[in-house]
Write a structure and sequence with these properties.
With about 400 residues, the protein is an alpha/beta fold. It folds into two domains: about 5-265, Alpha-Beta Barrel (TIM Barrel); about 285-385, NAD(P)-binding Rossmann-like Domain (Rossmann fold, 3-Layer(aba) Sandwich). The protein contains 16 helices and 14 strands. It has helices spanning about 15-30, 60-70, 105-110, 135-140, 160-180, 200-205, 240-250, 260-265, 265-280, 285-290, 305-315, 340-345, 350, 365-370, 375, 385; strands at about 35-40, 40-45, 55, 75, 90-95, 115-120, 145-150, 185-190, 210-215, 235, 295-300, 325-330, 355-360, 380. Strands 1, 4, 5, 6, 7 and 10 form a six-stranded parallel beta sheet that branches. α2 (about 60-70) packs parallel to α7 (about 240-250) and α5 (about 160-180) packs parallel to α6. The longest helix has 19 residues, at about 160-180. One of its GO terms (cellular component) is extracellular region. Keywords: Signal. InterPro entries: Glyco_hydro/deAcase_b/a-brl, NODB_dom, Polysacch_Deacetylase.
Length: about 400
Amino acid sequence: MYIDKIDDSLWDVADNFYEMQSRLERFIYNKPSCGTTWMFHCISNDRSEWYNSEYSITLKTFEELIQIYKEHGYSFKSVEQLFSGDEKSIYVTFDDGFRELASGVLSISKEYSIPICVFITADYIGKENYIDEIDIKRLSKEELFTIGGHTLSHPILRDISYDAAKKEIVGSISYLEKITEKKINVFAYPYGSIATVSGKNISVLRNSEIEMAFSTLQTHNIKDEGARYFQPRVNINESVALEMIAKLKNDEIFIPEKKIFEALKNDYYKKFLLNWISKLQKGYDLHTWISNHGYKKICIWGTRGDLARKVIDSIVSNAYDYEVVALIDNNRKDEYDEERDLAIINSEEISENVDLIVVIPGYDIDIIRDQANRNNKNKMIGINELVN
């Protein structure tokens, strides 16, 4: 069973990790498909509400996607029916709990009879742009809706202790059961890749009353008991959905981009990912690097992700011989506005008062440098450049 390959001991050796990924990929693609699980996050026709275009889609495109797949003979099923599906079965899931679920998505679900599974992060409940407890209770009573757990605070589970991870998982399930007055039997891992979920995390689910858990592996689902607690899901955003619609109109099959596996086949990204994880596990010492280079005033720009949050938290909560003049944290779930943040970065206040601008994670540092003003171009460095 492929999930048993996710063993913490493998993380000490990069080659073993890479081989584990390769075996997992081959295993999945050699197995018969029982359908595909679609993964959505933010959904709104108002793009100003999108926190990140990679995880956002308009209601209009979402509805068009549903329409064309139904017209081409695909059947939409609830996640509880996953093992009984075939290659033309589709399971629709939403992560985090954005507010449009209780209005626009609910209307589309009813109009087209589409089962929806919502994986809710407990700490987001009631916050701006997210559903509240009343919405959750109402959705849980809808015949087509399933409520699932998604931890309390959306951490990288592999990056915290076993007890802390168990509290995140079990606590979120208990909280949702209290709200819905129903048993919660499905779960989705935050981030959901091999890099962010450990075998110990999976064992918590196996030893609970949860019947199925979902990852973010970009491939179809498989009928294998070993996959019950790490079923793949395909991330769909506006651009991916439009590509899927265009291909289906031409009777072409959409094959999801295998981001994780393709990245690992590329030596640069493989090295970055493995080094980054290794340094985080050992306690990445960004502070010494900054001090050794004589920087006194820095700006931190966390463009996305809990990796950025981990570094940022450690910087702002400790005293060092440099000053964090500005902290631009785009890890918030309520918005994502690169243009706005670049304007802040390029402002006179930042340009004239900082020695260094650290972009986390910085994989797009070259693009960002091109958009920076003359004063800032040579001050910018991406965390990925420090890791490699």
